[in-house]
Amino acid sequence: MLAAISVQFLALRKRPLVKVMFAIYVALLLLQFFAPVGLLRIAPQLGNALNPEAALALEQTVRLPFAFATIFGQINGIGGLLLMIIAGAFVGGDYTWGITRTLLARQPGRGRYLLAKFSALALLAAIWVIVSVPLGAGCALLAGALLDLPQSIALADLTLVLRGLLIAWVGLLPYLALATCWAVLGRGVVAGIAGSIGYWLFEIGFGVASIFRMLGSFGERIYNFTLAQSVGAWTDLTRQAFNLDVGRAFGQFGFSFPSLLQSGIMLLIYGLLFGGGAWWGIRRRIV
User: Residue 192 half-sphere exposure, CB side, CA atoms within 13 Å?
Assistant: First the structure.
């Protein structure tokens, strides 16, 4: 099994799309850190100085240890979206080019093939998360130096970073499973990418949240069963740990996050649903 995972990861690592998506991710990470620098330095010169509260909030996004909240937010935000695109293309591409049929003709273990694919994606996500932290910390140090902000990292902060790494990685897995499921069921790149992104947009866009908000507390309880809210309940632990102005934790569009118990159960259900769908698709359908 390890050999199969190694082969799949080697194939994944050589995909140009991975490099393109990571380059986009790095560019957006730089923008996340240096856009506040521009606002804080340019706004006063234009006679539009920010109020103290807004200025403090911007400074905290680029100041360690608070900047770790910015880093992990970027990982599970834009990072999750880009990894879904990679997953959809990686799994669906084998169908599009006929590779799946050839591989399964030689080694008919379909479940083993699917598990190796997903394990390679999970390994890529782990590397993505680990690399993001020192990269983001370096951006924070440079941005802080440009703004003459004091920076500090205590041993307790490093412990929270380790916990944040695990939470961020686990939070990415359901979205990888979602993209894998769509790619297998649709047997192609388009299905894998469009299906997963479509679901992601459905949860946060198209007026869906507004509809649930109009239903009051009942709508909030229903919306809290979504994947975004279930993942957000856990990733918000990291944001709270590194944010002085936490207050009440809010999820998508102002909805409060569900309890960790509920979100944990829902993540398990989503994992079984997406994994089961992919398993059924590759076991029962002609490739």
Answer: 27
The pLDDT tens digits of the residues spanning 169-184 come to 999 999 999 999 999 8
Q: How many structural domains are present in the chain?
A: 1
For the residues 60-64, what does the mean pLDDT come to? Answer: 84
Helices and strands (DSSP H and E) totals, the chain: 13, 0
CA distance 72 to 95: 33
CA angle (227, 230, 231) in 5-degree steps: 85
- Residue pair 271/208 in contact by the 8 Å Cβ criterion: no
Q: What is the DSSP letter of 76?
A: I
- Between CA 272 and CA 279 the distance in angstroms is 10
- The range of the structural domain enclosing residue 200 comes to 2-284
Calpha distance 2→81 (Å, rounded): 27
Q: Distance between CA atoms of 177 and 240, rounded to whole angstroms? A: 27
Tokens of 114: 């699917």
Instruction: Provide DSSP, 187-203.
Output: TSHHHHHHHHHHHHHHH
